[in-house]
Design brief:
The protein is an alpha/beta fold. The chain has helices at residues 9-15, 33-46, 60-69, 92-107; strands spanning 2-5, 20-23, 50-54, 72-77. Helix 2 (33-46) crosses helix 3 (60-69).
């Protein structure tokens, strides 16, 4: 799974997904040209079919990755907060279910 900040590292470890972020959790550098180029290369080398954006992160970084790697952004996931009423991610459990569905559908 490719997202902007590698916020799903522990989720991936628990459920057998490799996760890649443009930057690591709580990085002091976010979205540098070198980070973007590294992720684009990984996407192309591993033939990753899609990338994802987070609700709380500037999407321009992933839009650049998507465009340069030639893959689509397959959905938006929640990382730092649950969703608003009606989003389908209003509680922690609903947020996790929502995110899993976004990841599974995007990686089909």
């Amino acid at each position: 799974m490719v997202i902007s900040e590698n916020a799903y590292k522990y989720f991936g470890d628990s459920y057998g997904f490799e996760t890649i972020g443009i930057w690591e959790l709580n990085s002091h550098e976010e979205g540098t040209p070198g980070q973007i180029a590294r992720v684009v290369d990984l996407i192309q080398d591993k033939k990753i079919p899609a990338v994802f954006v987070e609700t709380t992160v500037d999407q321009r970084y992933m839009e650049t990755v998507s465009r340069n790697a030639g893959v689509e952004i397959s959905g938006e996931v929640y990382t730092d907060a649950v969703g608003l009423e009606g989003s389908g991610a209003e509680t922690y459990i609903k947020m996790m279910e929502y995110n899993v569905n976004v990841f599974v559908n995007g990686l089909k």
